[in-house]
Amino acid sequence: MSDNLFDIKVGELSFKNPIALAPMGGITNSCFANENATDAGLVILGGYNLDAATQKAASEMLARGREEFESNEPLKLIESEIKAVNEGPVVGVNVRSTTIEPLIEAAKIAKHADAILELDAHCRQKEITDIGAGQALLTDLTKLCDWIEHIKETGVVLSVKVRANVVDDIELVQQIESSGADILHLDAMKEGSGADLNLIKNIRDSTRMFLICNNSVTDIDAAQDMFTRGADMVSVARGVLEDSGLISNLVHSISAQQEDMGWYNAPKHVCRGEGDLRGLAFCCLPVKPCPVHNNIKKLGYSAQEFADTKMEFVKGTMLEYGDSTCFGSLAWCCKISKRCYLRDGVLETLGLSDAEYMRLKKELADYIINNAKKPIGTSKN
């Protein structure tokens, strides 16, 4: 398979595929990454505790049986750990602190190493939250946003890892984005078990940040559930402990799909209530009552403006053709995974492959969102 199969970038960093190794305290170091995640597009090491307060908390957690990383020189540790990861994946480091200064220094190290800094607003262990770090940052948006702004002044690519369903998720995401973060790493945890797929869709529709989703990814079906709701990348954690080949298997499966279909995280159709706004690329002409109307309103389009926008994009492309389809153009045709003899007949006549069709649909989706009358999010990634 081609090394350039995926075109996934954040800032100046390019990922070879959309599968990541997530941080796990006391587990995800360079040795673990090299043994289990050489095929990944991204490995995130850590979490590392950068100041005296978080180091003390880590010691207390270790004393009660939790796994954690300890170091008297955490900044030197993360610098050496980044260098020790085998060539291939982009490297990130997940860090915690109760003060901004060590975070700035860690950001400078990551920036120099062409790595990602990930701010941990996720850890829910009492020793960490009691000192105002980890998940406690979700309830102190002023501090969190101030830290994001100052960290971004270093020029580092910044990820923020958060846990879902703790606070108002949409407000949280929009505040994180407006403060300048590049990546949202979402643990889509919900009460009970499994991932909150509806929340992933709602967050995708509220932000332009690069979105990494995590929680219960143990096979390609679970990953696909997240991709079709808007995840740009999925990360795996505990599943790797049970299956050392999990990341390689996920990479193989999603790469095969990208070759066949051309859009690895193509959304579901919005008419079923499961597709995010990118799914408007597959919608019919809005001439009858349908969920398309509610969705185009989110972007500020009238029905006519939406129709005009789609036809503006397809003019001069292969999507302009299709007189024999329902609405006279491939602009209005559905996802390739849904059978349609009218659409497929046109594709065959044009000599347009499934993957080429879907790549054009992805460009159409981007065009619809980028030209919205009421844009979502503030990120330029």
TrEMBL record:
Its recorded name reads Methanogenesis marker 9 domain-containing protein
* InterPro entries on file: Aldolase_TIM, DUS-like_FMN-bd, Methan_mark_9
Instruction: Tell me where in this chain the DUS-like FMN-binding domain is found.
Output: 90-261
Report the domain of life of the source organism.
Answer: Archaea
